[in-house]
Structure formats: structure tokens, C-alpha cells
Amino acid sequence: MAAGRLRSRDVALGAAFLGLAASSLACGFGPEPPDEPYYQPNYGSGGYTDPGYVAPPADPVVTEETYVFYCVDETELIVDPDNCDADLALDENWPYFLAFATFYGRNLRVGTRLPKGGDMFSAADTESRLGWGLPSRITNGSTVRSGIVGGTHTGTVGS
Known about the structure:
5-stranded antiparallel sheet
């Protein structure tokens, strides 16, 4: 083989090597990282984050809770539900209340004291009764299903 003469095979291998070297430099595999910041991983936060990325807002969470209602006296002792009949409850001094909570059982009997932590309102409070969607006459253990978004308590009445 004469010095200075290149064969076509040598030219093809040389061109392939130069092409490979040029493509690795273009992809950022060379000694210097590329200048564009979004190609550089952020190792401090556990992974790459695009500086221009904005997360979409979260949808409001809608949960359904079931409230259980009982007719009680001022000591939260369950009494006959007839005492909480809206037609009998004459004024705000009426001594019976509608107690409610999500954690009350549905089968508690008259004479049972309700667990601590529930809420209650006067059986004569027609505005609260309407706000909960309660009928004028309820039974002990009545339920109201409520979709909670921002604290509203209107819902549907079950039994």
C-alpha cells in the first residue's frame, strides 16, 4: 500500500468517526454542558424541573358526609323524637334540640347520652332546620347527606 493513498474503506470509517464525535458534542456529551438552562438537571431537588412549568390549579375537593340527627334535651340525652316536632316547638326557649354529627351511630335508643363532640340547635330554630333540609318531623337516627365545599351543609335527607 502506498503512503498517502486512502482507500474508500478508510474514508468511510473516518467520516463515521467524525460524525459520531460531532453528534456527541451537539447533544451535550462533550466536556462542557450546554448553555440552555432547561437541559441542565437540577440535582438539588431530586429531579429536573422545567423553570417555565406552572402546575395547573387543583380542582376543589367535593366530599360527601353523612350527618346523623337525634332529638335530645340540654344534656344531650336522647329523648322521644316527638319532642322535636316543628309543629310543637313554639319558641327559642323550647327545651329540646336537634343534635347532629358524622360519627353518631344510627341505632341509638331513647335514654342514651350522645358522645361528646357533636353540634346541636334548638328544635324551634326553623332557619337551621330548613338549612339542613330537615322535614318538620324527624325520627332519631335520621341522616342528611351533604356535599361539602366551603362548609355548606345543605343536602338530601335520608332515613
